[in-house]
Design a protein that fits this description.
The termini are far apart. Strand 4 and strand 5 form a beta hairpin. With 218 residues, this protein is of the alpha+beta class. The chain is 30% helix and 26% strand. It has a five-stranded mixed beta sheet with strand order 2-8-7-4-5, with no helix packed on it. The chain has a three-stranded antiparallel beta sheet with strand order 1-3-6, with helices on one face. It has two domains: 49 residues; 122 residues, Sandwich (Immunoglobulin-like).
Length: 218
Amino acid sequence: MEGMDVDLDPELMQKFSCLGTTDKDVLISEFQRLLGFQLNPAGCAFFLDMTNWNLQAAIGAYYDFESPNISVPSMSFVEDVTIGEGESIPPDTQFVKTWRIQNSGAEAWPPGVCLKYVGGDQFGHVNMVMVRSLEPQEIADVSVQMCSPSRAGMYQGQWRMCTATGLYYGDVIWVILSVEVGGLLGVTQQLSSFETEFNTQPHRTYSTVGEMKHAQSN
């Protein structure tokens, strides 16, 4: 357990030891909370099962196993591309939420990473989108198809990047929605929809004389 940089509540640990609880869902939930949601429920279950569902032993096993070997990817939130601060959306309306993120580390992300819903309001049925592995310092936009709630009000949800092995990493990124009857999707959303449609056309058409001349000269 050397090098553990985590502050475990001794009373909490003692409480679970005394209870000898066999409720696996409770133990998984508490294990995940103690790790700051760094591991998904399946990963928590793996370490708990390995230690005969002893919470304290599982915490120790996790840090002993992960610390020497794992290089946690880095991710920084850059900006909201669509549905930024001050934009309002009508109830029950489909929209695309896009964030700009960056691999802020010195190593490329491993294959199979994804962006996952982790808390708050979900805004529809999508809870995960695959993300391509970014090179060091590379910036990319990540989009999720969502739907606004049926009632007016302020809503918020949280999403995080996650590796294929279930390790969460990087900044928590937020969706903050103002749902208003008669609300309008902002200009950024409309432009994003237009660009997506334009960029998915099978053949690009040159829209200006300058671009056509440039293409012909090449």
